[in-house]
Amino acid sequence: MHRRLFPRALALLALVATAATAGAPGATAESPTPATTQLRATIDTILGDTRLDGAQASVVVVDTSTGQTLYDRNGDRRLIPASNTKLLTSTAALALLSPGHRFTTDVRTTGKRRAGLLSGNLYLRGGGDPTMLAADYDALAAQVAADGVRVVTGNLVADDTRYDRTRLGPDWTWDDEPYYYAAQVSALTVAPDTDYDAGTVIVHAGPAGRAGAPAVVSTTPPTGYVRIDNRAQTVAEGETSISIEREHGGNTVVVTGQIAVGDAPASDWVTVWEPTGYAADVFRAALHRHGVRVLGRTVLGQPTPEAADPVARHASMSLGELMTPFLKLSNNGHAEVLTKEIGRVLSGAGTWSAGLTAISEYVADTGMDTGTLRQRDGSGLSRRNLVPATEFVDLLAAVRAEPWFGTWYEALPIAGQPERFVGGTLRSRMAGTPAAGNVHAKTGSLTGVSGLSGYVTSADGHLLAFSILLNNYLTASVKALEDQIAVTLAGYREGATTAARMAPPAVPETPRTPEGLECSWVKPITC
């Protein structure tokens, strides 16, 4: 990996900017302009909100065109970044794998063929693709059938050996394990829909035609890999209260509660135990639909022989295209797959350790001081991740020089844009403010942890890089405070002449679900 010149270039830019600022009327390093003084006073007021009593706040704002630091509150303090961690993972993936990188899924065999009979095993070799749908496995099966195979005498071997067998990330909490945002990571997996939450199945529970009958339960995609324990009942009337939970250590999904006749089905995304078997089950069913019988059993985790002949192949969308569902929807699974893929491509080891080492080397090359931070996973689900806000801002400033920056910038969530694959996790925030359609930033949420880091164009056209990290608060949400800061930055104009304290701007509250979780974090499409 070639060392980069970002740190030296940024240092030179900062020296030039400092000299220019010091020479401006009424501005020195010790004496900021009236506009900057006003900006700092306003952000101080926002951070003085009682919702942050006893909490920790780290906020840094830099003008990327001059290198001037407009605001710094505890910028060197290491805080839990949650999904802001994806800024490191996504930029490293684009730099180290390239925007054109694709994942491939192959079907191969070493068997001999005669009149539609394949004497040997059929190998389904996973390449890590987190976007594989049931339809893609169906297309692979159609290719196998079109190649003339009708009967396979051997086994269906599901090869997930591109990555190691460590399925869950370091430090992830046990009670997150059944939920879509903590799915097991495998090089061979299935996503149920085009949100591409690989390693999950959508379970639907709808009402029967009469009260007293069991609820009608189905899955997307249809699969026998998940066993449904249906305890839910249909009632004549009343509030729907369906619970869908997978038991630990297996693929039994327990459905409980009630649903009224005529109500719309309740749905939830549930992780599967061992995604490799899930993919093999979906593929085997697809083979059967296309008239291909496999007489042997399904075998998991064995490598495909190097001499195996290709039968079918599927290539994923490019990594540049994958950035949109990855960053817009803050897809944890994508972050972890990319971490292992980086490790596999650069060092031959598809492990978290190898991937994180390469990510660290890349972000160090951009100018981040990796001696001040700790990254334990690709997504930010680990609470042992620690990153100072100033290091995020250094990264945000540096990657503007990358050839893929435009692709990455557009893939970040955009404030106040209601389309899910435009606004992403910011689609319901800052609408109707100067930040709407302006702020491109990565959100982050864990219990007691919130973050927003990215870019905003100021009122005088300067691109500002900012990072807001808030930890250890007890209130339900502090996202309105992040939004107030972002809206303040969108209205910032260096030419302002008054240093009077400005009242924090009013922003719409982030919509909330009945469970009290913020729509920027939870799954329901209605958020």
Automatic annotation (TrEMBL):
<comment type="similarity">
    <text>Belongs to the peptidase S13 family.</text>
</comment>
<keyword id="KW-0732">Signal</keyword>
<keyword id="KW-0378">Hydrolase</keyword>
<dbReference type="Pfam" id="PF02113">
    <property type="entry name" value="Peptidase_S13"/>
</dbReference>
<keyword id="KW-0645">Protease</keyword>
<dbReference type="InterPro" id="IPR000667">
    <property type="entry name" value="Peptidase_S13"/>
</dbReference>
<dbReference type="GO" id="GO:0006508">
    <property type="term" value="P:proteolysis"/>
</dbReference>
<dbReference type="GO" id="GO:0009002">
    <property type="term" value="F:serine-type D-Ala-D-Ala carboxypeptidase activity"/>
</dbReference>
<keyword id="KW-0121">Carboxypeptidase</keyword>
<protein>
    <submittedName>
        <fullName>D-alanyl-D-alanine carboxypeptidase/D-alanyl-D-alanine-endopeptidase</fullName>
        <ecNumber>3.4.16.4</ecNumber>
    </submittedName>
</protein>
<dbReference type="InterPro" id="IPR012338">
    <property type="entry name" value="Beta-lactam/transpept-like"/>
</dbReference>
<dbReference type="GO" id="GO:0000270">
    <property type="term" value="P:peptidoglycan metabolic process"/>
</dbReference>
<feature type="signal peptide">
    <location>
        <begin position="1"/>
        <end position="22"/>
    </location>
</feature>
